[in-house]
Amino acid sequence: MRLSTLSCLLSTADSLSPRPRVVVSGGTHGNEYTGVWVLQRLQLRSAELAEQHPSIAIETLFANPPAHAANRRFIDDDLNRQFSAATLADTTASSFEAGRAKAIAADMGPKGAAADAAVCIDMHTTTANMGCTVIVSSYSTLALRAAAFVHTHWDDADEASPPLPLRVMVEECSQCEAAHLASVARHGIEIEVPFVDGADADGALPGAVVAASLQDRDFAPLRAGEALFEALDGSLVPYDGSLGEVVHPVFINEAAYYYRESGRGVGMSRPVEWPVL
Ligand SMILES: [Zn+2]
Questions:
Q1: Which residues are known binding-site members for Zn(2+)?
Q2: Ligand 1 centre distance from Cα of residue 28 (Å)
Q3: CA 243 / ligand 1 centre spacing (Å)
Q4: Domain residue ranges of the chain, discontinuous segments joined by +
Q5: Is the peptide bond before 18 cis (omega within 30 degrees of 0)?
Q6: pTM, whole model, 2 decimals?
Q7: pLDDT digits over 34-91, tens only?
Q8: Domain AstE/AspA barrel-sandwich hybrid: where (predicted)?
Q9: How far is the centre of ligand 1, averaged over its atoms, from the C-alpha of 190 (Å)?
Q10: Residues 6 or more apart from 191 whose CB is under 8 A from it?
Q11: What is the CATH number of domain 3-194?
């Protein structure tokens, strides 16, 4: 997930008053790791974010830790289908996620226009060929405006690498009917990004990801000193030249390479001259 998307949304939330709660959630589906990784990064940057956005209180919510620990979408039931007003009021539901939804709603709610949390931005990943998608609901004018803002600034948000396509999807529903987690707050926004299974075999997240400037540059030369990885704290880790002054990265962001046993999210190749036989 590009942090610039989130930054755009946070900038939009800055127009709210006075110092509203903005909850950024991830891990709603336990096997979607990108959001959990971004949460860790936001927590590391909390002081910086507070300085950049002084008019809002930015919080992080790790929505379903047990499902994440088990590397499963959910334990008993899909958490992102538990937040309609009717389901939240159902006292007979006994699944883990039904209870978890009630706890989240008690903290951010009461669900709807009077919710304590002004905005919830819930981060997801998808295996479908959807590029990046911002999903908003027709009942929230602010969410619609935020999505339009991100869409307008999408192409110039990151000059280092051409962005994936961005689409905005609007769900036609009332807030009462909406069953997704973000619908608890006064305004809800979901972000879907392409799926990358970044977890190690033991469930640990990577300490760094491939630098954005390297994305889609398979077989292009990379010189010693140029950015190779981006650490959790946002710092860039340069290529150290240990495999030669110039290398040609391949399999950039190959999901299988994030496993400790398989590699580090990128492979290195060097061109060779073969004798003509
Ligand atoms: Zn999801």
A1: 29, 32, 124
A2: 6
A3: 38
A4: 3-194, 208-269
A5: yes
A6: 0.77
A7: 899 999 999 999 999 999 999 999 999 999 999 999 989 999 999 999 999 999 999 9
A8: 210-259
A9: 9
A10: 1, 5, 6, 9, 121, 122, 123, 124, 132, 133, 134, 135
A11: 3.40.630.10
